[in-house]
Design brief:
Length: 173
């Protein structure tokens, strides 16, 4: 018995989508390490501290129609870490969920952030120094271009679109 014409068309469309999704996944896995190194480099270039992470995983369609990026073993240390030996932030896992529909419209929208098994330790010493200075932007110099206001507005847009933050097994000191 032959397939009805609309069923054939539906299968062709579904097959095309599967090939396109497979190509996108292959591309994402191929460049995952390059993207990971780029993200760490950019983060460290814009703060006074140091961000390190062990690896980045990419999971499509986890938790709905979107993309999930998970960073493992993340550490954020301020520039005076060698003196006081207290990390500002240590996380076992950080997962960011991005809406694929908005990404296809060329808009980056973060739906949720999940932080698992972490420790946030903020302190101020007797001289008034705080390790929170690690996340402060680096001082602007004359050689730096004036895109900081654009970067700041991008950060505000991303935070505005954030719908959910989940903290699992998190210590705050």
């Amino acid at each position: 018995m032959p397939f009805p014409k609309f069923l054939k068309i539906g299968l062709y469309i579904l097959g095309s989508f599967a090939v396109l999704a497979g190509g996108a996944l292959t591309w994402a896995y191929q460049y995952r390490d390059d993207v990971f190194q780029y993200l760490l480099k950019e983060a460290n270039a814009h703060i006074r501290g140091t961000v390190t992470a062990r690896k980045l995983d990419f999971t499509p369609f986890a938790g709905g129609f979107g993309l999930s990026f998970t960073l493992f073993d993340i550490h954020l240390r301020d520039s005076a870490y060698a003196n006081h030996h207290k990390e500002l932030l240590a996380l076992e896992r950080l997962t960011v969920h991005i809406d694929l529909r908005q990404l296809l419209r060329k808009q980056l929208q973060i739906n949720s952030v999940t932080i698992e098994k972490g420790k946030l330790s903020i302190f101020v010493d007797k001289n008034g120094y705080s390790n929170l200075q690690a996340v402060a932007p680096k001082d602007s110099s004359s050689s730096q271009d004036t895109t900081t206001s654009e970067e700041g507005s991008l950060g505000k847009k991303l935070l505005k679109s954030l719908r959910q933050v989940k903290l699992k097994d998190m210590e705050v000191h």
